[in-house]
Amino acid sequence: MNIFEQAAGRLMVALDCPTVEQARQLIDTLEGIPCYMKVGMQLYYSEGPDFVRELKDRGYSVFLDLKMHDIPNTVKNGAFSITSLGVDMFNVHAAGGLKMMKAAKEGVLEAMAASPALKQPILIGVTQLTSTDQTMLNEELGIPGTVEQSVVSYALLTKEAGLDGVVASPLEVQAIKSACGKDFKTVTPGIRPAGSAAGDQSRTLTPLEAMQQGTDYIVVGRPIISAPSPREAALQIIEEMKQAW
Ligand SMILES: O=c1ccn([C@@H]2O[C@H](COP(=O)(O)O)[C@@H](O)[C@H]2O)c(=O)[nH]1
């Protein structure tokens, strides 16, 4: 695998589009770029599992970002269904607790036992959303301490539950890796190339800075989707990621 492919494989493009037609148009413009595709609530709730299957048929790695957070039994059954779909990665909220995260893992293992040909998906826990800042954490959510402390404590809980990694901002990657080990995966949204609008994101770094922090995957939505040329924007981000090698 060359450096371009290695970098592209660590870029997750958030397909935050309202319809499958718009998502297809975006994917067509990214033809030949071997990035991960992230399907979130907007597209999944409108188009359902068929579009995920279509992405898999087109050869993409798929991160299904539905952030499950419910009672353990419901999450276990949801994890069974998601694993049976054949996605490469999915997530649950770490705030659902140890029992809920362990139930998600059980759902994965039961789906694997039912269909041994499936590839086991990477299962990750969401720590503190990248839109959350220090004031919101302490004053609105009533959680004491720093954002980094909260993220690391969720990461440790996620690891204890037997999951593979977490979603966090790139600013916390080093603290997560030193608490949970370098093989514990970090998936980091909150990526903003220089000059692009932060929007609702609070904890951000550029693609190069995120890679320099040692993150495993960066997630990018609007800086690609809303660019005049999404293809050029994605290629530019991959170029920036390559500089970290
Ligand atoms: O903490 C989180 C968890 C998930 N996301 C998702 O990532 C993308 C980011 O999109 P941008 O347009 O680049 O901001 C989006 O799909 C979120 O749902 C996140 O941002 N933060």
Provide an overview of this structure.
- α5 packs parallel to α6 (98-114) and α8 runs parallel beside α9.
- With 245 residues, the chain is α/β, with parallel strands linked by helices.
- An eight-stranded parallel β-barrel has the order 1-2-3-4-5-6-7-8, surrounded by seven helices.
- It has twelve helices and eight strands.
- The chain has one domain (3-240): Aldolase class I (TIM Barrel), CATH 3.20.20.70.
- Bound molecules: the ligand O=c1ccn([C@@H]2O[C@H](COP(=O)(O)O)[C@@H](O)[C@H]2O)c(=O)[nH]1.
- The ligand O=c1ccn([C@@H]2O[C@H](COP(=O)(O)O)[C@@H](O)[C@H]2O)c(=O)[nH]1 is lined by residues 14, 16, 40, 126, 129-130, 167, 189, 199, 201, 219-223.
- The ligand O=c1ccn([C@@H]2O[C@H](COP(=O)(O)O)[C@@H](O)[C@H]2O)c(=O)[nH]1 binds next to β8 and α11.
Number of domains: 1
Determine the structural class based on helices, strands and strand pairing: alpha/beta
Radius of gyration, taken over Cα atoms and rounded to an integer in Å: 17 Å
CATH class: Alpha Beta
Give me the CATH fold name. Answer: TIM Barrel
Q: What's the main sheet like?
A: 8 strands, parallel, barrel
Q: Can you count the helices? A: 12
Please write the string of helix (H) and strand (E) elements. HEHEHHEHEHEHHEHEHEHH
CATH architectural name: Alpha-Beta Barrel
Domain Orotidine 5'-phosphate decarboxylase: 10-237
EC number: 4.1.1.23
Pathway: Pyrimidine metabolism; UMP biosynthesis via de novo pathway; UMP from orotate: step 2/2
Enzyme class: lyase
